[in-house]
């Protein structure tokens, strides 16, 4: 027993020393911790605390009885979710719109950042950056109003151009075949400019000597982009890609709701709008919580799989 005492004391001493080192480190960078405090509090209150409410997905939740007094039903709501006659169509819409957004909208800020980076006139570059950033600060209600005006079959600029070319006007927001195109296109127009900020910052960190050496070797701008710029951007691209696929099924309620109407609902309704209709308007809280939990599990699986593949192929990962 006596022989073990020095070892135990040594472990306690090491732990105490590590705690003191950690406290000194935190005090040294206390300003950064204070700056991050509002964000940490936000995530705790609005992201982590509500996770405990996911338990009602396994209950027949009654708002008057509360969580403690509601009846447990196990996986009944999940079985109901997959058996619902319209759920598979809504899930298909969500998957297709998410896939289109990943394939078309995700690369758009990268391409735009590369194009902006090639501008040499500083004033023109700053003005253009401001112009492409501005739509991001408009709400989706305003974006929807602009889309209604621009795509109107009678007075819209797009249909006037179509009519001038000798074709019949197209009711873009009244035909289910066009709603996905409108959703993706409006998202690209609104968010691509703002998404370039991170990529432009990454481009600014590339060593200019690399480009000078490439010019000496006779590489043109296209070759420099392929051999220097894209590889330098790859870590940033992979991190943002992994974050993007984590919300693959979370396309956004307001982004779709402002464009949705009975004429395009078949191809336009997604899980978020379905949750609003059934959960908030229909007050089926347990059922829609089960749908939300399903979305979260799928997103987590995609992040884990994508992170593993990214680490194996590129060496870049979230963790």
Q: What's the CATH C level?
A: Mainly Alpha
Give the SSE string. Answer: HHEHEHHHHHHHHHHHHH
CATH topology: MetI-like fold
Largest sheet: 2 strands, antiparallel
Count up the helices: 16
**What is the overall shape?**
flat
Euclidean distance between termini CA atoms: 42 Å
Q: Give the helix proportion (percent range).
A: over 70%
Low-confidence stretches: none
Rg computed from alpha carbons, rounded to a whole number of angstroms? 26 Å
Strand order of the largest sheet: 1-2
Average pLDDT for all residues: 88
Q: What class do helices, strands and sheet pairing give?
A: mainly alpha
Family: Belongs to the binding-protein-dependent transport system permease family.
InterPro entries: MetI-like, UgpAE/MalFG_permease
Membrane topology: Multi-pass membrane protein
Main location: membrane
């Amino acid at each position: 027993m006596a022989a073990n005492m020095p070892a135990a004391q040594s472990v306690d001493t090491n732990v105490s020393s590590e705690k003191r080192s950690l406290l000194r480190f935190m005090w040294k960078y206390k300003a950064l911790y204070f700056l991050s405090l509002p964000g940490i509090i936000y995530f705790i209150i609005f992201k982590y605390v509500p996770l405990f409410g996911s338990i009602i997905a396994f209950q027949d939740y009654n708002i008057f009885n509360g969580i403690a007094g509601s009846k447990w039903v196990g996986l009944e709501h999940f079985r109901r979710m997959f058996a619902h006659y319209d759920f598979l169509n809504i899930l298909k819409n969500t998957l297709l719109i998410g896939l289109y957004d990943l394939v078309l909208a995700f690369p758009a800020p990268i391409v735009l950042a590369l194009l902006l980076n090639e501008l040499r006139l500083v004033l023109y570059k700053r003005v253009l950056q401001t112009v492409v950033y501005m739509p991001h600060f408009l709400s989706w209600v305003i974006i929807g109003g602009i889309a209604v005006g621009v795509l109107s079959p009678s007075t819209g600029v797009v249909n006037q151009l179509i009519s001038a070319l000798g074709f019949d006007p197209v009711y873009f927001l009244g035909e289910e075949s066009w709603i996905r195109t409108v959703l993706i296109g409006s998202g690209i127009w609104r968010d691509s400019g703002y998404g370039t900020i991170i990529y432009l910052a990454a481009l600014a960190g590339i060593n200019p000597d690399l480009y000078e050496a490439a010019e000496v070797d006779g590489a043109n701008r296209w070759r420099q982009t392929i051999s220097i710029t894209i590889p330098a951007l790859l870590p940033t691209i992979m991190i943002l890609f992994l974050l993007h696929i984590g919300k693959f099924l979370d396309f956004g309620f307001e982004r779709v709701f402002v464009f949705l109407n009975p004429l395009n609902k078949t191809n336009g309704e997604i899980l978020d709008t379905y949750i609003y209709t059934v959960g908030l308007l229909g007050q089926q809280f347990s059922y829609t919580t089960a749908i939300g939990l399903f979305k979260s599990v799928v997103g987590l699986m995609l992040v884990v799989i994508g992170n593993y593949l990214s680490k194996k192929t590129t060496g870049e990962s979230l963790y």
